[in-house]
Amino acid sequence: MARSLGRICKGFQRLGSLSSIQTQLRQPSTSVSVSVRGTTLIRTMVQALPSLFSSKPRDFSLPNSSWGSEMMQLYEHYNSQCEVETEGGEKQEGPWRRLPSYNRLLKYATGGVYLSKIIQSKARLFTRNIRDPGAAFEYVLFVNSEEQKCVCVFQAGHLLEGPPGHVHGGAIATMIDTVTGTHATILSGPVMTANLNINYRSPIPLGSTVLLESSLDKKEGRKTFISCKVTSSDGSKLHTETTALFLSINFSHLLLGE
Ligand SMILES: CCCCCCCC/C=C\CCCCCCCC(=O)SCCNC(=O)CCNC(=O)[C@H](O)C(C)(C)COP(=O)(O)OP(=O)(O)OC[C@H]1O[C@@H](n2cnc3c(N)ncnc32)[C@H](O)[C@@H]1OP(=O)(O)O
């Protein structure tokens, strides 16, 4: 435990002081401003993420050759609203913001006390650990701070099969947890999923693109309640409906695992 804590402290030392991160935040090339309450932490984390990796991290939420036309259309729909033009022709932030996505959250604060050091260093985010483009989880998240909403465009690859020709329910749950969990983190800081209640209404064809829409229901103390719908890309078919509960945690909770 002491070793793990030491590693985490080292990790945060490498992150640099908060003021140096804030200086980074002010630089145009790295500036992201998610302007909802309680988002300073997540903004800092999102901003700091790239510097936690040894070499240039790959942002998995950018288009690749496996993205089909539906995925691209929806991506462009939301991406075009990340920056808008004023009447005077100036560019300014729009209502939506694309979230970058890496295959690891923290390089140094790994936890995982049951793993050897070598294996710990190979730990990767579940949804981003298959390198073959298009094979599994292809997705991109956008957040709308004003409306306290999050959307995710998700293209389900051939390795996610459950019933023949359709997406595995666990893979769907994984994406719902990812989207609502990210949304809850943006709204409330570090959280863990306490409850996910999913109703599967219609199967998702393998290879198709669907839209996940997450919205805040309410916040009560440490509890953040979120709802999420999965629909076909044109919104005409409802695939799943979910309510989720997230509880705010201290980082030490992840280490102690209690
Ligand atoms: C650090 C995050 C950083 C994220 C950065 C995001 C950037 C984006 C990048 C990448 C995206 C990746 C996003 C992935 C997201 C995935 C998230 C997961 O999958 S998390 C894994 C699955 N979840 C677990 O393993 C939890 C296991 N459970 C626990 O650890 C505990 O039970 C915990 C923390 C949930 C609660 O434990 P207590 O001890 O803190 O709290 P107690 O006292 O038990 O409960 C507090 C209140 O909550 C209610 N409560 C607790 N559990 C409940 C439940 N299941 N249903 C209803 N109420 C519950 C209780 O009744 C109590 O309520 P009363 O205060 O009395 O009103």
Characterization of the model:
- Belongs to the THEM4/THEM5 thioesterase family.
- GO terms for molecular function: hydrolase activity.
- Its main location: membrane.
- InterPro entries: HotDog_dom_sf, THEM4/THEM5_acyl-CoA_thioest, Thioestr_dom.
- It is a single chain.
- By secondary structure, the protein is of the alpha+beta class.
- It has one domain: Hotdog Thioesterase (Thiol Ester Dehydrase, Chain A, Roll), CATH 3.10.129.
- Helix content is 28%, strand content 26%.
- A hairpin with a 2-residue loop joins strand 7 and strand 8.
- It is globular.
- The chain starts with a helix and ends with a helix.
- Residues 1-54 have low confidence and may be disordered.
- It binds ligand 3VV.
- The site of ligand 3VV has 16 residues, from helix 6, strand 6 and strand 9.
- Ligand 3VV binds at residues 45, 105, 177-178, 181-182, 185, 190, 192-195, 223, 245, 247, 249.
Question: Layout of SSEs?
Answer:
Elements: H1 2-15, H2 18-26, H3 40-48, H4 69-79, E1 83-85, E2 91-93, E3 97-99, H5 117-120, E4 137-144, E5 149-156, H6 169-188, E6 191-200, E7 209-220, E8 223-232, E9 238-248, H7 251-256
Antiparallel strand pairs: 1-2, 3-4, 4-5, 5-7, 6-9, 7-8, 8-9
Strand content: 25-35%
Q: Which parts are unreliable, with pLDDT below 50 for 5 consecutive residues or more?
A: 1-54
Present as ligands are: ligand 3VV
Mean pLDDT: 81
CATH architecture: Roll
What is the CATH T-level topology?
Answer: Thiol Ester Dehydrase, Chain A
Alpha-beta content class: alpha+beta
Give the strand line-up of the largest sheet.
3-4-5-7-8-9-6
Total strand segments: 9
How many distinct folded domains? 1
Q: What is the assigned CATH homologous superfamily?
A: Hotdog Thioesterase
Shape: globular
Element string (H = helix, E = strand): HHHHEEEHEEHEEEEH
Distance between the termini: 13 Å
